[in-house]
Amino acid sequence: MSGQERGETSSPGYILVALDASPYSAAALAAAAEIAAALNLELRGIYVEDTDLLHLCGLPFGFEIGSFTARPRRLVQSHIEREFQLRAAQLRKIMAEIAGRQRLSWSFKVVRGRVTSELLSASSEAHMVSLGRVGTTPGKRIGSTAQAVARNTQRPVLVHAQQPLSGPFTVVYLGDAASDHAVQLAAQLARPRGTSIRILALPQFRPQADEFAQEATAGGLECSVTTAPSAEAMMTLLAQLESGAVILPVSVAPWLDSLAVTAIVTP
Fold first, then answer.
1. Which of 61, 105, 143, 263 could form a disulfide with 135 if both were Cys (CB 3.0 to 4.6 A apart)?
2. Is 54 exposed, middle or buried (0-12, 13-18, 19+ CB in 10 A)?
3. What is the mean pLDDT of residues 157-176?
4. Model confidence over 95-135: pLDDT tens digits?
């Protein structure tokens, strides 16, 4: 299903948004719509009907806990199927509203399969992937799906924390290609927002980080470089952030679980 088109010009690419019933998913959609509007990209939503959940219906230990009664009840496939349909209709409506406000070209599709596999397949040609970060494992901020997609896709992954995507943008720089991509993406996002960039680098990569900062400053951006003595010190600094967003190279995607702010992982 397509929404409003941008005149007669097709988008040069698209942002894929993984949708589910969580408020984190709605935040991921809103952030993706904002980026899509800034970069003139199409917005594509996907809702995966989880076959792992359907398989539980046939097992003797397949129970769920009622959200209102807090009592266990057996999983029934017909009920799950109906939930899938209602949820997809609700998500389609939310997507139409958000994309409409940004006047974006958009589409929404429903697929059935294993969630991580379907998202990785659908994201193979995306410009970026946006998804929520909520996890069900005690003590974990990031869900297993978000971690798996962030580590395995070849596209930047926006992992959202129920707050508007805003600066300043803190970039982890480790001297590799993914770090270069992270700095470049930070510049793309900071410029239309009129916000600043801070590059956080290890000592051996300070010269390269300084070069990027000089280029950004020459382009009209406010950009600074901070050196951390070790990766552990770097992670501690990031964990203390309460605002803005962090952009990580994929090699440190496991740090996502330590962050309280919105994060983007670059390949």
1. 143
2. middle
3. 89
4. 999 999 999 999 999 999 999 999 999 999 999 999 886 55
DSSP per-residue string spanning 39-73: HT-EEEEEEEEEHHHHHHTTSTT-EEE-TTT--EE
Cα–Cα dist 152/155, whole Å: 9
How does DSSP assign 24-48, residue by residue?
Answer: HHHHHHHHHHHHHHHHT-EEEEEEE
Alpha helices in the chain (DSSP H): 23-39, 51-56, 77-102, 115-122, 144-152, 177-193, 206-218, 231-239
Please determine whether the domains at 14-160 and 169-266 fall in the same fold group of CATH. Answer: yes
- CATH superfamily of the 14-160 domain: HUPs (3.40.50.620)
Task: Let me know if 248 is exposed, middle or buried by CB neighbors in 10 A (0-12, 13-18, 19+).
Answer: buried
pTM: 0.83
Fold of 169-266: Rossmann fold (3.40.50)
76-98 pLDDT tens trace: 677 888 989 999 999 999 999 99
What is the Cα–Cα distance from 1 to 7, expressed in whole angstroms? 17
Mean pLDDT of the chain: 85
Name the DSSP letter for residue 128: E
> 144-152 and 115-122 helices cross at what angle (nearest 10)?
30
**Could you tell me the residue ranges of all domains in the chain?**
14-160, 169-266
